[in-house]
Amino acid sequence: MEKNNNHYYSKFPDANVKIHTISESLRRHLYIFKTITGVFSFNKLDLGTKVFIENMYIPIESKVLLDLGCGYGSIGIVLSYESPQSSVYLIDINKRAIWCTRENVRLNLQKRKKSIHILSGNYFKPLKNKNLKFDGIFMNPPLRQGRKEFLKLMLEIPGYLNTNGSFQFVIKKKMGADYVLKYFKDTFPDENIEILCKRSGYWVFKCFH
Ligand SMILES: C[S@@+](CC[C@H](N)C(=O)[O-])C[C@H]1O[C@@H](n2cnc3c(N)ncnc32)[C@H](O)[C@@H]1O
Hints:
Strand order of the largest sheet: 5-4-3-6-7-9-8
Radius of gyration: 16 Å
Distance between the termini: 38 Å
CATH class: Alpha Beta
Bound molecules: S-adenosylmethionine
Shape: globular
Structural class: alpha/beta
């Protein structure tokens, strides 16, 4: 049991509840996001998230996509808007984030709710017994606790990707983007990794494709 629930990756954050509304133009479309204290970057869209959304590769054909650690849902909602034939899964451990994601799907994707699946829990655990694999997994990873958990998670990713599926993620240069790149190349010498962009101190990666 966690002693301190005062951070965004808690299951039940205990910050006082205050609801915010963010409007943001992403890939030339205006989105409205409801956010709440205790959720990652609740007062404005994180710069890393913005760089990622603007530069991630989105397949337009019908695919199965996952926003892992979705926060209030910005990445997955943009994926669904831009790739309307796809099924999009969004997972987060933080219950407030899940509440925001449900609200934001309702606000931004009224007609697409059937192709959106919002799940609460620890990374891939909510998919247990679902026998699901993805054509794309997208992530702005939580690195506040350090890189170790993310590097461990990366080992699990190939098991959840379809053939030709890819994992895309964003990392701040200062948080060790070059270290992660080296780790990937050492750990998966036969796999592809490319940098889709380097912008405003953030690196966007696409790998396992
Ligand atoms: C850096 S934030 C990114 C949030 C959102 N994707 C965005 O870009 O605004 C990382 C997210 O991962 C979630 N997270 C942390 N540990 C998790 C875990 N074990 N399982 C699922 N989600 C987790 C956090 O609650 C947080 O919402």
